[in-house]
Structure formats: structure tokens, C-alpha cells
Design a protein that fits this description.
The two termini are 15 Å apart. The protein has one domain. Strands 1-3 form a two-stranded antiparallel sheet. The protein has a two-stranded antiparallel sheet with strand order 2-4. By secondary structure, the chain is of the alpha+beta class. Helices cover 55% and strands 14% of the residues. The protein is built from four helices and four strands.
């Protein structure tokens, strides 16, 4: 992700992600509703998290389901 995209994203309330991955897909599928799973995976691919998903990302990291470097 370029520096410009990162700064613009943070100004819009989005948080830039480091290299993140789902470590436990079984736990992920049981903790995250199916309607949000695609949004979470897309945010990981895009490298930024919209404000609406930030609390969920925090919980997934705290639970050890997702790891970010």
C-alpha cells in the first residue's frame, strides 16, 4: 500500500493493516457471522479496515484467530 493511500485511508477513518492472516478458520467461521466473513476477508486483502469493522478485527486479534505482523 502506498503512503498516499495509507494517509488518505486514515483520514477517512479507515485503519491501515500490516500483513494479516486468519490463523484459525474454524474459530473464524464460528465467531464471525457469514454476512461479515466476506467483508473481513476483503479488508485483509485490501490492507485497510473500515471503521465499522475495527471492533471486530480487534476481537479477532485478541482471540488469536487473526494475526497481524
Amino acid at each position: 500500500m502506498s503512503l498516499v493511500k495509507r494517509v488518505v485511508g486514515e483520514m477517512e477513518g479507515q485503519r491501515a493493516l500490516a500483513d494479516c492472516e486468519i490463523k484459525d478458520f474454524e474459530a473464524f467461521s464460528s465467531l464471525v457471522p457469514p454476512s461479515l466473513q466476506a467483508a473481513v476477508l476483503e479488508a485483509i486483502r485490501a490492507g485497510s479496515v473500515p471503521p465499522s469493522l475495527q471492533p471486530l478485527f480487534r476481537r479477532l486479534r485478541d482471540a488469536g484467530v487473526m494475526v497481524c505482523l
